[in-house]
Specification:
Strand content of chain A: 15-25%
Shape of chain A: globular
Oligomer: homotetramer
Number of strands of chain A: 15
């Protein structure tokens, strides 16, 4: 099909050319001298992106699901109880990962569209006087719903309840798109991956572990080998990996982290906030609802759009891909057929946001939805003009 | 700047990824055995694109200006008279190229926005009873104005006037975007280049010469070396070039011609017609004028948009590039500051057209033009929905 | 450093340009329609490469170590006994992976340079009348020593001993370089990865599982989530993956498997045999020893060269990398400093083999080794001339 | 064919990956704001490479032959007499280019293998008391023979003869491989191109013109348009080009000039000298002759090797390409079938030189030449070890 594809799913996004080119560089020896410069340069940049000084960053050849598994098997022993909150498919998935790895998951299921409130966390932990929960699992940005949770408030709930559980946070679709503060928020293990805000294709699971998490690892008895932090940390210290790293992906990550830090994280966040604002303005102009329960928790990374009865979101996705070369995210779980998701993350500009909205409008119109062509585009244009991109320093 | 650039100038357009990749292949020996397959495969495909069986295709490492020069020095002798029509900067440029190469140019200057009519050509040739004109220079698609000339009609004028002059046609921005028929239209030399409908960056000047043109070359006394067809034809026959060819560009051209012929030329033309239609519909929705004197001569490759007084098109270009990552074409010559040009050629899809229009709207709005945001986008969306892309066979 | 690097480690090898280009293609939606074609096309090709009709191929975003882990946790229950043979670092690693995942490993340690004999396997299994061993772990090509084990013979030993244990085979550095026959050899789980004979960078762990292994999975109680075959198989059946796949690596694998199958597996094996023969001929011409205990078990993928006393192989690696842009493999474990490894796998030609040998000679000479410059090169040249590459069909 | 091609022709050479990647960057608007930075950054770097402060650099989309033509039509008037020296196909070609462009060429033909001596130039110019010669055409490095001419000495001859002719020097295969000093040697027009020492594929003709040459242009009456310096200089001054530039090639040239200047020109020259020395040492070890008439004029860019009777160099080229993936240069003109050329220029390392020599040895052996396999390789290895690469500053 002629022209450029618009990959507006909730990650991965379109890869910046500089990152693609970096991944095309000839392979180097992952046990050689030159490799060391690559890896030793990479970790400090990732620490900046996690906003941590005390954390330890670990990179696995894996998807984000692998990062989840690693966060659990390194810190817990078989049968350990964990408290988890389901607010969408991915927070539920983290809990399922814990269950499948042999932990006793106490799962609090909330309606899709909710975020996890400080009050709820406090209540659950307060009730656990015996400290059976060894960890609290939560999600920074729920990719299935487009809801961001206030992790600082979750940490506050732990503190208030004086509960010693580890705080494990999935920031897979949050990191490097919306603000994340590993140290300031007292996170114990943050899980991320390459294919979201980090501007890369999938293939790398990335974690950040606190000193408390590292200490927990020493006594954690879960069987582990591939996702064990121990050999990683000792080999990483010298600039190497215990088994063959995905070198081309590390090349890309090196370039992508340069792009992000050169732009400046706060600018990256402001840019995402602006794109999200433009998209949500368009959704409202269409007369549709954003799923997130209230504006404060709307994600700046993805927007879940509720469709009126009679418009099938699965049909919308097929049509937008085949007729308009536009990939959107499906409504998942209870939202199947009823909602779709627009990814507005990564290296995108105003015109790409507007093209996406224009494509959604045409596909909706084609499906018979009552929609005024151009209405969302116009609303977003106005919003963008009224709120120009902040300048970089 | 994050995101993808929109290169909506009147050529070059965005390069398809497959073409970029082809140009990245390792160099081969241009005197080796493998090279022969590349070049011998290329010429027949270019002949299909020129719609010729009797023509000879020649490729130079040069821009389109080099193709002009080559069309002249191979067919004319110093001081020969040529008849040329100026309807914009590029038709005027072809004439200037002839003048600088030592030919006696009789230049008919028409207002920008005009096409060259059969009647006018007939009149000029009829008046040349002594057949002093050795060639008629004309342009298929004037890139400065967005006007297409009916070359079949021009040929008809030559026939009617029974004039033996060679018909030299610049189809630099026409070929492979709008229909061009070398044989059917009795063209003697067609000049083209890589960076327009052929989906490539600049660097190759491409010509097609008729048997009559080849015969003219035998007696043409203009000094020539670099752009001489003779050594090209004899070496090309064996699959080689008389001097080092631009191999990476030939790789790209090989891939690009595959893309075009796989899509089918008629589909390529229909796609361009549809994109142009969408853009012109938007321009009308904005309340602006397209420069072309009448709808029949509007180009399907580029559209020149006249701006209302008080809106400076040069300022528009600066703003669209710097704020919206959108490159547009300037108003040239008499249109400087008063008009701008939108390129809608090459490998583009609906969403890219709409993004371009959305960007133009925002930039115009920023400059204070009276424009209803989204109006052009909506008009184009409707047009696109009402006229879906024809299916490929 | 000017010029091309020679990456002659025991994998990954230099990536073919076509594969690099494939990995640079724009990302597609891994939940979209187009993706299905990619993945559904890939599995049948991998089955051809494993030489299986009855096996099920599964691909993880991971290194080969992940494939090991997956082979174990899907087929075994906590505490299960397995029989393993250590003949080098990687066979020992597979056993360690089993131990760390909570299985009772009975490890038979053989000298480095050995292969695993049918007799030994038979003896161990015969002694296990109670069938406590649930699996036998072995390695097709030991990357640390350059020794190939006769897997057909190992299977024969199981058969002869009438032992029901699963046969788990690491063919990480064997597959697609030397002959591997999943069906014919009765393998239950074969583990492989992208960065060896499959011509790719690291990032994909690849397994093939027999019906018996799939059946074992149903009762295997090991906790598993990331490396679980279940969700993979059900989603793969429709052309998708349960979590985000490493799409760019799948693009590359798609191209690489085309390259291999277009060349023909038997030709690939013959080419590797010839390269290995050339290298070993050179080693003998230098007067050095190949580690493998006897010629029949010498690997066609890598050669471990024993250095004479006084020549430090670690120094050799530093020197060859920094002065001659040549990466070689280190002597591992007991061979540290005493041996080095030459990788001769993947897309290599005669001149690259000879350049490698020339580089080794210069580096050895620089280190004061008694070596006649050019002697190994000459021996290899002669061998290559006497044994030209077999023609492809 | 598996493995990497060895492109050891006398240019183009293998393109460095960084340059290939630069050429793959998305196109920018050649009339836009960002373009200016690219072009204004390029010219000063090229001036450093020409070693000029007073010269003006001009870049055409063309091959080197176009640069020849440009050097002539800008400085001469129709019928002007020029003195030229033929010492091989390319110096003869420059003269032929002058003849075809309408100048009166006085051609001194010397045996292939000769350089142009100061004495000869002096003699010819001294005899031209009436100063009919408006220009002296000479070649810095004759690509057909591998002979370098002492341009400083040629300038000295002009000075001594007090002859006002312009000194036009073809440094197409010399620039950026062997020392060239535009200012110090009093060159008036130097012609170069992208595909030799400048590390690029073909497609750009590059010239450097002295103030005297620019002054000559003002009165030079040759018809010219495409290759005219006037519009180039006026547009270049603002960072633009009069017609569409070959932007992707400019991207590459920008990167390639960075590579060269970062390495340091003197190091580049030393590296070429060392590679050439290694190759010539091998040729002598084979018992063959280098064509150049004496060691002082041997080129450090290419070596022409004379074959003994009975060994056909054309057969050698076919065999080396088809069997060993090695491209060599043919014997041209009188040397057809009797000699072949090895290119040793650009981004090459020791192992690539040795692989080339090893390939030549095998191909020669296959053709029945009396040659001791490995002999040339060994001689070159020894030479390389005895003369390690000088360190960069």
């Amino acid at each position: 099909m002629p022209g450029r594809h618009f990959l507006q799913i909730p990650g991965p996004a379109n890869i910046p050319d500089r990152v693609t080119q970096a991944m095309s560089r000839p392979l180097m020896n992952h046990r050689g001298i030159a490799f060391k410069d690559l890896s030793l340069g990479l970790f400090p940049k990732l620490k900046k992106i996690f906003k941590t000084e005390r954390g330890t960053v670990i990179i696995f050849p894996s998807s984000g699901t692998g990062a989840w598994e690693s966060s659990l098997v390194n810190t817990l022993s078989p049968g350990d109880a964990v408290l988890a909150f389901s607010i969408g498919e991915f927070s539920a998935g983290y809990a399922r990962c814990a269950k499948n790895n042999g932990f006793a998951v106490d799962l609090v299921e909330l309606p899709w569209g909710s975020s996890v409130s400080e009050a709820l966390v406090y209540e659950k932990l307060k009730a656990d006087a015996g400290h059976k929960y060894k960890a609290v699992l939560t999600i920074h940005n729920e990719t299935a719903t487009g809801v961001a949770t206030d992790i600082a408030a979750v940490r506050e709930a732990l503190n208030k309840a004086k509960h010693p559980a580890l705080l494990l946070v999935d920031t897979i679709s949050g990191l490097a798109s919306i603000d994340f503060r590993f140290d300031a928020w007292g996170v114990d293990v943050a899980t991320a991956c390459s294919q979201k805000g980090l501007l890369m294709p999938a293939g790398l699971g990335i974690l950040c572990a606190s000193e408390k998490a590292l200490k927990a690892r020493e006594s954690a008895k879960s069987p582990r080998h591939y996702f064990d932090w121990g050999p990683m940390m000792s080999r990483n210290a010298e600039g190497y990996f215990p088994y063959t790293p995905a070198t081309t992906l590390l090349y890309g990550l090196d370039e992508a982290t340069d792009l992000l830090l050169d732009e400046g994280l706060e600018h990256v966040f402001a840019r995402h906030a602006r794109m999200a604002d433009g998209v949500r303005t368009a959704v409202r102009a269409w007369g549709f609802k954003v799923l997130a329960e209230r504006p404060e928790v709307e994600s700046n990374v993805i927007t879940t759009v509720m469709l009126p009865p009679g418009v099938d979101s699965d049909a919308l996705l097929v049509l937008s891909e085949t007729e308009f070369d536009l990939s959107l995210g499906a409504g998942l779980g209870p939202l199947k057929g009823k909602a779709f998701r627009i990814g507005h993350l990564g290296h995108m500009n105003d015109l790409e946001v507007l093209a996406t909205l224009a494509g959604v409008e045409m596909a909706l119109s084609r499906l018979g939805a009552k929609i005024s062509l151009g209405a969302g585009v116009a609303a977003c244009q106005k919003r963008f003009l009224d709120h120009p991109m902040p300048k970089k320093n």
